[in-house]
Structure formats: C-alpha cells, structure tokens
Amino acid sequence: MQCPKCKQYMKAIVYEGIEVNRCTNCYGLWFDSFEQEDLKKLSGAEVIDIADVDIGRKQNLKTEIRCPVDHVEMIQETDRQQAHIQFERCPECQGVYFDSGEFRDYKNFTIGEFFRYYFRKGD
Ligand SMILES: [Zn+2]
Ligand SMILES: [Zn+2]
Description:
Elements: E1 10-15, E2 18-23, E3 29-31, H1 35-41, H2 53-60, E4 75-78, E5 86-89, E6 96-98, H3 102-112, H4 114-121
Antiparallel strand pairs: 1-2, 2-3, 3-6, 4-5, 5-6
Helix pairs in contact: 1-3
This protein binds zinc ion (2 copies).
C-alpha cells in the first residue's frame, strides 16, 4: 500500500490479530473500516504509533488526499470526542488515515477523559 500523504511504502503491521498499515517514511497509519475503534479498546495498542509529532503536524496540513485502496478523494473529519484530532476518512471504504502521533492521542482519550465525557453526555 502507498501512503496517501507522502507516497512512500506502507508496511502491514499486526497488533492482536488486527492488521494496520504504517508508512515507512512519515509513520502515518491506515486503518481499514473501523479498525481504529477496535484498536482503541485494546490496551497497549498505542505502540503501533511511533508518534513523531513534528512529522505528524506537518503531514496534518496535507488534507487533499486520495484513498490508497480505491483512489477516491478522502474527507477530512474531526473526532467528535477530541476536537483537536483531525483525520481523513474514505467515503467509499470507510478506511481512515491518522498522521503520526494522532492515534496515540486518540487512544489516550479512553484512559483519560472517557468517564468524564460519558458522564457529561448523560446529564
Ligand atoms: Zn507517509
Ligand atoms: Zn477507500
């Protein structure tokens, strides 16, 4: 698979039976449909994200990208629980792309603010 942001090779990595692709150059992560939600629940899964925040921040500015699977234009989305996290989703296959450091941030929510968020929602 080719990285939708920097066009370099994305290597398949497996965590607890879930396969994700990580760019060998910019460390962006590609998740097939909803895999990121499965991985969010698995403790320790943040190790798949090398989290080079400087690279991630630069890559986050590239928003016009095409899905590496079906080549349609991806849509930029904001995580509804953590508004500072922006990722790209493919409207066709529902795959998502996280820049380096974003998945770690996305996942940390579960541990940190999870309860606060759900309590607030229940008010
Ligand atoms: Zn890349
Ligand atoms: Zn797609």
